[in-house]
Specification:
heterodimer; A: mainly alpha; MetI-like fold; globular; disordered N terminus; B: mainly alpha; about 75% helix
């Protein structure tokens, strides 16, 4: 008990390094900076037009309306965008989790030459860092030639390639932590590599796989660059449609805010569920390799 | 980092091991290798997709033209300025926030959770959000600033200010990223170090500069480099907020490549830009990986 108290004291000491009042002021300011924009987004989504186009702006809306959401669906293709976003994100998550875990499993427990493992691991690291824009023009051209323009498939392929390196790196870590004795035992029992991957080792790292999958879901849900390059009309996800508000239709803030809520909300729920895994996933992505 | 696990594998295992890697190779071939090679080839041709003419081999002309292209030089300058400013701000404020959140009480934990929000929502969404708030006439920011007597500012339409606005939005998004990573590094400092310093009567600020900073330095350097490299990938925010304008005040390399290649369909020219871009980025990334493995060895 005493030990715990001492520990807390020490860390308090650190967090008050600018003095207690300064600490409180800065943290409250930081929280307002983070949270107020979301208050603004949500209230704008429910404001009537006279209130979101008002000068001075209306901070506390007096009339609440759902019209913006209805408009977003009826006039601005929000439902289509939502379906596309879900298909792209789910498709990417499934393919990336499957292919990524297979590759990671093979690198850790498979029968590959040692040198190959090192080369691949460092190559994934490089792949993770290079800017996606550099292949944009050739990809645009190749996808056009393949007749995959404006298709969900094209976006799933591209998003899978962006997310694979991170998933492989994270899954390598999880497979390494899984007890090898079980793997060995099932090997002696005559299980093939495929059986061990499917029934023995992957079930042991299930929670890791789910966390990585969630991360992939969020990244491909948020993806914009390739979505805007490779879609014309029918495969447009929400991110492209909301960007279109600004470039084509001027500022129609109500429906735009409504759509913003729909883009942000699922991500917030996932984050709430997976906080800890998120932090470790993101930091591993930045620090490990 | 890859611990080799050796036990006798049979033939089938060896075949399956390679088969398990196959899908990854196929995807990366389609989405990375072939486009990269193709782009490299195209960069030596004069080729516009919208004209009905076959590609014309021009050797290095595209590359030479790049350096005569004022818009390219402008984008390069903007991008470097943007990268330096945003990284500096994000690192300094990120470290401060991390320090302030380094205790274990429930307030800090809840605040940490809220801080995660800007960095995980779609950059397109945060761009839209800030565009709404920063509007000159209807935006809340100018309204709030009017209370302290500041005149209305055209945050995105004034060519002298727009780039700083982009830096601000980028900082809003990624300060949490820096803070979270530095925070986990601060928490890994052995408590005995801090206790010893405290018993010796060191001031908190001294503990910060003499203990916390040196121990977390490797992580801070890595995070700074990750952010620096990422600053050259900035696209979504600019696309939504300024489209590279006003004038070309916020045009950066990714938006420049996008405009040349996808909007104007100058395939050869934009490929040359992309190849030059990735060459420079690889050099930076290579230095970064070397530095990082050195730093990680220090972290242990």
């Amino acid at each position: 008990m005493k030990l715990i108290k001492q520990r807390t004291d020490s860390s308090n000491y650190l967090s008050n390094f600018l003095g207690f009042p300064t600490r409180v002021v800065i943290l409250i300011l930081a929280l307002i900076m983070v949270l107020f924009p979301f208050y603004w987004l949500i209230t704008n989504a429910f404001k009537v037009e006279q209130e979101y186009f008002a000068s001075p702006p209306v901070v506390f809306p007096t009339i609440i309306t759902f019209q913006n959401f209805i408009d977003a669906v009826v006039k601005y293709e929000m439902f289509k965008g939502l379906v596309n976003s879900v298909l792209i994100a789910v498709g990417t998550t499934v393919t990336t989790s499957l292919f990524g875990s297979m590759a990671a499993y093979s690198l850790i427990n498979g029968a590959l030459p040692k040198r190959i493992k090192g080369v691949l691991a460092s190559w994934f690291l490089v792949q993770k860092m290079y800017p996606a824009i550099v292949v944009a023009v050739p990809v645009f051209y190749i996808i056009r030639t393949l007749g995959l323009m404006d298709s969900i498939t094209a976006l799933v392929i591209m998003n899978t390639s962006f997310n694979l390196p991170l998933v492989i790196l994270l899954m390598i870590g999880f497979y390494q932590e899984a007890p090898y004795e079980v793997e060995e035992q099932s090997m002696l029992d005559g299980c093939s590599l495929v059986q061990r991957y499917l029934y023995v080792t992957t079930p042991m790292v299930k929670s890791g796989l789910i966390a990585t999958g969630m991360l992939t879901f969020v990244y491909s849900w948020n993806e914009f660059l390739y979505a805007v390059i490779l879609t014309v009309n029918k495969a447009k996800p929400l991110t492209v449609i909301i960007a279109g508000f600004i470039t084509d239709k001027g500022l129609i803030w109500g429906p735009m805010a409504a759509m913003g809520c729909v883009i942000v909300f699922p991500v917030l729920i996932i984050m709430w569920l997976m906080q800890r895994d998120f932090i470790s996933g993101i930091s591993a992505g930045a620090l490990k390799g | 980092m890859l611990i080799s696990r050796s036990i006798s594998h049979d033939r089938a295992d060896k075949i399956y091991s390679w088969l398990f890697l196959l899908p990854v190779f196929v995807i990366l071939l389609i989405a990375a290798f072939i486009p990269l090679g193709y782009g490299f080839g195209l960069s030596f041709f004069k080729y516009k997709l919208n004209l009905q003419q076959s590609p014309l081999f021009v050797g290095l002309e595209n590359y030479i033209d790049l350096f005569r292209d004022e818009l390219f030089m402008q984008s390069l300058k903007n991008n470097i300025a943007f990268a330096l400013m945003s990284v500096a701000i994000e690192i300094v404020i990120g470290i401060i926030i991390a320090m302030l959140l380094s205790d274990d009480n429930s307030f800090s934990r809840i605040a940490t959770t809220f801080l995660l929000i800007p960095m995980i929502i779609a950059p397109v969404a945060s761009g839209t959000l800030w565009k709404m708030m920063l509007d000159r006439t209807y935006g809340i920011v100018n309204y709030l600033l009017s209370f302290v007597g500041l005149p209305a500012v055209s945050w995105l339409a004034d060519f002298r200010i727009a780039i700083y606005t982009i830096v601000f939005v980028d900082a809003w998004q990624f300060i949490p990223f820096v803070a979270i990573l530095v925070l986990s590094s601060i928490k890994s400092i052995p408590k005995s170090f801090l206790d010893a310093a405290r018993v010796d009567g060191a001031s908190p600020l001294k503990v910060f500069t003499r203990i916390v900073l040196p121990i977390t330095a490797p992580v801070i350097i890595i995070v700074a480099m990750v952010r620096f490299i990422d600053a050259f990938k900035v696209f979504d925010t600019i696309f939504v907020m300024t489209q590279g304008g006003p004038g070309n005040a916020t045009e950066m390399l990714p938006t420049y490549i996008y405009r040349q290649g996808i909007k104007f369909l100058k395939v050869g020219y934009s490929s040359a830009t992309a190849i030059l871009f990735i060459t420079v980025m690889s050099l930076i990334a290579w230095q970064f990986i070397r530095l990082r493995s050195k730093q990680l060895r220090r972290v242990g």
